[in-house]
Amino acid sequence: MNQYWGLLISYAFVFSFIILSSILNKFFHLSDYITRKIVHIGVSNWWFIAISTMKDPFIASIGPISFIIINYISYRHDIFKGMEIEEKSNVGTVYFPISLLVLVLLSYYRLIPFYAAGIGILTMGYGDGLAGLIGKSFGKTKVKIFDNKSLEGSAVMFGATFLVSFLFLQNFGIERAILFSFEIAALSTIIEIITPFGIDNLTVPILTALLAFLFVNSDIFPFLAIIVNFFAALFSYRKNAVDKTGFLAGFAVGSIILMINWLSYLLLMVFFVSASIVSRIGHSKKAESQKINEKGGQRDYLQVLANGGVGMVATILYFLTKNDLFLIATAISFAESNSDTWGSEIGILSRREPISIINFKTLKPGLSGGVSTIGFLASLIGAFIISGVFAIFEGNSQKGWELFILIGIAGFVGSIIDSIIGALFEVKYVTEDGLIVERRFWNGKENKIYYGFSFINNDFVNFASCAITTLIFTFIYSLVI
Questions:
Q1: Phi, psi of 439 (to 5 degrees)
Q2: Which of 5, 63, 99, 398 has the smallest set of CB atoms within 10 Å of its CB?
Q3: Across the chain, what does the average pLDDT equal?
Q4: Alpha-carbon distances, residue 173 vs 162, 169, 197, 216 (angstroms)
Q5: Contact 214, 241 (CB under 8 A)
Q6: Which residues pair with 426 in a beta bridge?
């Protein structure tokens, strides 16, 4: 069939569901939510038209691109009322064709197989669509992380995704198709539950397609790794160690690291657990000093990335190069993060006021750049905890002691670098009462900059010191040991 005929059929197919939704909405008084889900489910079947009639990626992309534009115009002006939603902050009808476009390009340019793209698209259609309908009508048991999802709706999401995946994967054999479909359905359901801000029309199809490709081309370990890390991140969230954005970032960073290397993940967990423990020591005494800090007790996504981002990048580089030097870089990064966290959390409990690492003048507890004797000792302990774990499990007994000393010293020096950068460059504000704080706003009013650079906050300092330390001491290791 001529590809342009396929394109015309595509438009007729999609518009037929849009017109049907408008008729059902206007004449049969079905709610906007139900008619929108009908469009949602129906349009996902366009994938079968695309792969059977269009071979050129440019032709296949025309439909999704045009509907990104059409849906956005409709969203802005309520043209197709049957496919819109009252909550104008939700632009899911625009996200869906964006996902279609991404998966068309990935599959037509052979970056992922067509079956993976199909699983992603139809999971979005049938899985998310039916889950919404069932959850809205019959959902009683709520599963709340970001949005109110129901256990009943999530069960439907799992079942629909399983059936969609099994349909596409039968060529791999019944037993393998069942295993792969279970893995895809479980992770797709988790993604749907935890996706915030109404962007599941982006995350569910794209991530489901990528996971389908990953699981079919590997053993069961990646699936188990993601599941383990999901519950680790969820536990942290439930214990108020991270906020919602920190939960998502931790889930993503931890999953990537665990799928690549278990030792790197162990170091991440040792850092996170030990840092969480020391952050709770003397909690009541820290309450006053935390008021002047930019961040509270819970870690957000920026803090997670600032402390774990360098380690994640190093782990990815290890995966790409198979060079053990990047495993050592990972250990150095977490030693620095742990050292800095231990020094800050324990040092703030010192009976004596901290002194500036630059001019040795006393500082108010909680301000960056302040150091104390007990803080230095805590920094040493925090660094050598990570270096000790790495030396024990790294498996190279001949270099065990050398790695233990180098990584421990690197972590401790890194915490000093963090203090120096914080003292010299991190932004400080002054309140109307003359109090020096790290918060931009105080009692509902915006503070004036006292010194430092506005774009250099605590997260910037943490990331910069970690990156600098990792680069310097990884280079030293490559020369000396």
A1: -90, 135
A2: 398
A3: 86
A4: 15, 8, 38, 12
A5: no
A6: 453
pTM, to two decimals: 0.80
Residue range 395-410, pLDDT digits in tens: 766 778 889 999 999 9
User: What is the identity of the amino acid at 361?
Assistant: K
| Backbone angles phi and psi of 16, in degrees to 5 | -65, -35
Quote the CA–CA distance of 242 and 299 in Å, as a whole number: 4
Domain boundaries, the chain: 3-218, 276-480
User: Cβ atoms within 10 A of the Cβ of 128, count?
Assistant: 31
How many residues belong to the chain? 481
| Contact residues for 3 (Cβ-Cβ < 8 A; gap 6+) | 53, 54, 55, 56, 59
Residue 274 CA to residue 257 CA, distance in Å, equals 18
**Nearest residue to 466 (alpha-carbon basis) of 422, 425, 411:** 411
Residues 145 and 133: their CA atoms lie apart, in Å, by 20
- Least confidently predicted of 70-74, 95-99, 295-299: 295-299
Asked if 261 and 315 touch (Cβ cutoff 8 Å), the reply is: yes
Torsion of CA 74, 77, 82, 85, to 10 degrees: 100
Can you tell me the distance from the alpha carbon of 332 to that of 324, in angstroms, rounded to the nearest whole number? 13
What is residue 88's predicted lDDT score, i.e. its pLDDT? 47
At residue 89, does pLDDT exceed 50? Answer: no
- Return contacts of 370-373, CB within 8 angstroms, 24+ apart: 370/419, 370/423, 371/343, 371/347, 371/419, 372/347
Vertex 157, ends 221 and 136: CA angle to 5°?
150
Asked if pLDDT for residue 91 goes beyond 70, the answer is: no
Contact between 25 and 77 (Cβ < 8 Å)? no
Rounded CA separation 453/455 (Å): 6
Report which of 234, 132, 118, 127 is spatially closest to residue 189, judged by C-alpha positions.
127
Is the pLDDT at 61 greater than 60? The verdict is: yes
pLDDT digits 0-9 by tens, 328-361: 999 999 999 999 999 988 988 888 888 888 888 8
CA dihedral over 87, 155, 251, 239, signed as positive or negative: positive
Residue 239, number of CB atoms within 10 A of its CB:
11
CB distance 264 to 332 below 8 Å: no
